[in-house]
Design goal:
The protein is of the alpha+beta class. Helices cover 19% and strands 29% of the residues. The chain contains two helices and four strands. Helix 1 crosses helix 2. 10% of the residues are buried.
């Protein structure tokens, strides 16, 4: 999950009747993934160009999907690949 949220707690000052609110910002980081269905003519390089803007990032896709590939050099139309760290537009 990706979210920023505020955790609020109330405290009472002993010198006054004012109840200050203390805010603490917590940041949670998550990895975004995207599913891509292989089409005829696709290569890992072409998919990386489409998803990341650079074919040189094809190994990121390969490493995330290696268990799904019976033959590492061969991808088939209809296969579903996970595209890690994809920035949605």
């Amino acid at each position: 999950m990706t979210s920023d949220f505020l955790k609020c707690s109330r405290g009472r000052s002993e010198d006054t009747n004012v109840s200050p609110i203390y805010l603490q910002t917590l940041k949670v980081t998550a990895v975004l993934t995207f599913a891509y269905t292989v089409r005829s003519g696709d290569t890992m390089w072409k998919i990386a160009e489409k998803m990341y803007g650079s074919g040189g990032k094809h190994m990121k896709i390969f490493e995330s999907n290696a268990p799904l590939l019976e033959i590492p050099d061969k991808i088939l139309p209809g296969q579903e690949f996970v595209i890690p760290d994809h920035e949605a537009e």
